[in-house]
Write a structure and sequence with these properties.
single chain; Rossmann fold; alpha/beta; four-stranded antiparallel beta sheet
């Protein structure tokens, strides 16, 4: 479904990605783990069109090159990102944030049905439907960011650090819902610092260090690797 080859990104004189490659098969959860500053978020932003990759980079989604396409066209194709830091609109209600997630769509009946589906996945949002997003807890805002992304009806969902800054019990809820979204037919590329949870939920994984892929393979194999345990899993190992 997604093939990335020789992906390079620079911010001025600083090289963030050094020609990395990865693939995501239809129906998979693939995770990209690594420490802060490794280039994980830059990878997602390049795939979704938010940063321009260097010449020679190859990003192919569903058989179509998207390396030079603008973000709104990529969203229309079914590739949607839930950003790091949640990025909800704090002065707008939960309902209005969800409506914005469907901005590329015009099928009113489908939008209404997908909103109900999203609210069934995230019942807390249903309880806070008329509240301003800025009044929600961090965990509820993360739920809203994911639900808003689902409103675009993604076939490939990019999740950027969905557990960042959340209490452990909320992290468990978020990852349970990630499994449910995938079971419903949505392919997922997950960027996570919480390697323990990411490898537990994913089918395959890549390890990114300073802009380079240094390990890849089935998630269970990487979770059992002493190198990964020592570098990224800490007490969870």
């Amino acid at each position: 479904m997604l093939e990335v080859e020789s992906l390079a990104v620079s911010y001025g004189a600083i090289k963030a990605l050094h020609g990395i490659g990865l693939r995501v098969g239809r129906g998979e959860i693939v995770t990209l783990i690594g420490s802060n500053g490794a280039g994980k978020s830059t990878t997602l932003r390049a795939i979704s069109g938010l940063v321009r990759p260097a010449a020679g980079s190859k990003i192919v989604y569903d058989g179509t090159s998207i390396a030079s396409r603008p973000p709104h066209e990529i969203v229309r194709m079914g590739l949607v990102q839930s950003p790091e830091g949640r990025g909800v609109f704090p002065n707008m209600t939960v309902e209005e944030n969800l409506e914005l997630g469907a901005y590329v769509r015009s099928d009113r009946d489908g939008i209404d049905a997908d909103r109900e589906k999203a609210l069934s996945l995230f019942p807390r949002l249903k309880e806070r439907f008329r509240q301003s997003a800025g009044t929600l807890s961090g965990g509820e805002q993360q739920m809203l960011a994911m639900a808003r992304a689902l409103m675009a009806r993604p076939r490939l969902l990019l999740l950027d650090e969905p557990s960042l800054g959340l209490a452990p019990q909320i992290v468990q809820v978020i990852f349970r819902i990630i499994r449910e979204i995938n079971a419903g037919g949505t392919t997922i590329l997950l960027v996570e610092q919480n390697a323990h949870m990411a490898l537990k939920v994913a089918h395959r994984a890549y390890v990114l260090e300073v802009g380079r892929i240094v390990m890849e393979g089935p998630a269970a194999e990487l979770a059992a690797s002493d190198q990964v345990k020592n570098a990224y899993m800490g007490r969870h190992a």
